[in-house]
Amino acid sequence: MADGKPDLNGLWQAFVTADIDVQDHDAQAGPHPEIMGAYGAWPGGQGIVEGGGIPYKPEALAKKKENAEKRMVVNITSDDRRHDTGDPELKCFRPGIPRANYLPFPFQIIQSTDKVIMVYEFEHALRTIYMKENDKDAPKDAPADSWMGWSHGHFEGDTLVVDSAGFVPWTWFDRAGDYHSDALHLVERYTPVSPYHIMYEATIEDPNVFTRPWKMSFPLYRRMEKNIQLVDFDCVEFVEKLMYGPYYKNPGK
Amino acid sequence: MRNRFALSSSVLAVVTALVLWAPTFVAAQASSAAAAKAAARTDTKAAANIEKAWTMPRTQDGQPDMQGYWTSLSFTPMERPAKYGGREFLTDEEMAQVFKEGVQHTYEYTYANSAETPVYDATVYALGAWQNGVKPNRRSSLVVDPPDGRIPPLTPEAAKQQEVMRKTAPPRGAELENGGVVKADVPADLGLGVRCLSFGGPPILPGAYDSNVHIVQGPGYVMVEYEWNSEVRIIPLDGRPHLSQNIRRWHGDSRGHWEGNTLVVETTNFRPGATFHGANAKTLKITERFTRLDAATIEYKFTIDDPTTWTKPWSAIVPLSAVQGPMFEYACGEGNNGLVNIMAGARAAERTAAAQAASEGHK
Fold first, then answer.
1. Which whole number is the average pLDDT over B22-41?
2. A126 chain-B contacts, CB cut-off 8 A
3. In this complex, is the C-beta atom of B351 within 8 Å of any C-beta atom belonging to chain A?
4. ipTM confidence score
5. Would you list the domain boundaries of chain B?
6. B349 part of contact set with chain A, CB < 8 Å
7. In A195-252, beta strands by DSSP E
8. Label partner for B10 (CA 20 to 30 A): which of A78, A138, B230, B361?
């Protein structure tokens, strides 16, 4: 960039299988294999968690297991109980951070002087990272909780360091039910290691759920196709029957 | 904080429902406001003062800098009211009167409902003019071309189609108050906004609330984030061709370039059923021109060109006024309590009607 900062502009994508499980996992048949066959099967892969396991508190580990068991139990009410069960990805809810960074969809970084914007193809989820110190438009602490969090960033050498909090407690890390509370605090490091690669590292802290902070890391790859751009994956349209089916005039149809 | 957020979601869904079922209401409400600045330009003394005190800010790569938070909120009607005849600009007295009525109207809109319906405190959404940067506009209408300030007639085919749509549309507004029932057999019976699918745009136009955009410029790109549903357009400036006609987007496919200090954005590849004023997605082209006039104003002009829908192209100018940030995430589908309530209400109405029919049958 003209200001001497590394240029992170472009479309990026992770190629890990962490959206299925951030930890090591075998391939598995997906939901309804009797109709979905190999279309619906989930690939195996090596985890992205450093040091192996996630340091859950005992009661939180039980909740993670319950989440996994009920990941496809969707019960949509007109209040917050709609978040009690079911993977938010299944319901097309904004994926939160860090999950948005390793969903199997590209995202675009638009880097300006005072802000870095990340726009994710999945449900056009967007996060603004405020880069200016004492920005009058961007108080230090989140004025309201949100799905994509409240983020401030700065460069340490070539590394973009992003500090985020102010998350709703309803996003997960993966389909395996790994989760957090509204005390989630994230520090992410985006380090360009070539014009085509960024090494990504996130330190995850949430004293309500974990006994200590833990880290995940994986590379982001620049999408190199000529004229590549984001297109729409506005999945709200695709989940209407799943979400609101019980309220249809003819629920069976 | 979380509770308030959840409440907001439901409120927004309800408000959205009202707004999107009543496009004419929106158009009337949403009279857009901006020509104040344009008006200032016509006042040579004011213009001279502004120009002396201000130089165009530039981004790192030398483009005119339009970054920040802007509102299109306005009290100016889209089309010129007959009472102004052919006059493009208002007198000082008329301008003051339009502004005063606009403020008064939003005030009443806010407080008429608040006592019985606590979900509807519109000040939360900065409906009040004094809260959100709206300024007096000397123009008598947003439409500036044709010169009569009126949207040109529809083509005969488009008129026929829209008539069919009007006849088959579900009841709305006054029809509902007179005993009509909301048709909500499936979500597709309801508007795109009620379903959190799209709130429209381009163009950037004022709605009843949340008429804000956030502009960020990176090398080779301009991003426009709409407050409604946090919808976003990313506009490449590198001269690449449009997407293939086989890919159709909720907000179309935009390409931008600079003409002097003006950002010109052309958008095509719209999605059938999600176009401005029901235009033909296959033939609609919208051209937007953003020109920063001073620290607090962008002149935003858009031209609608769709030869299968209107008999000629037409243009409008909506001044965008700087407002304080930030703009918050608008998570819509995540908390669309309104859609649940509308559909549950429709089912309850059916049960009531069935029970009534059964009891009358017994008599």
1. 34
2. 225, 230, 232, 329
3. no
4. 0.96
5. 2-356
6. no
7. 197-205, 214-222
8. A138
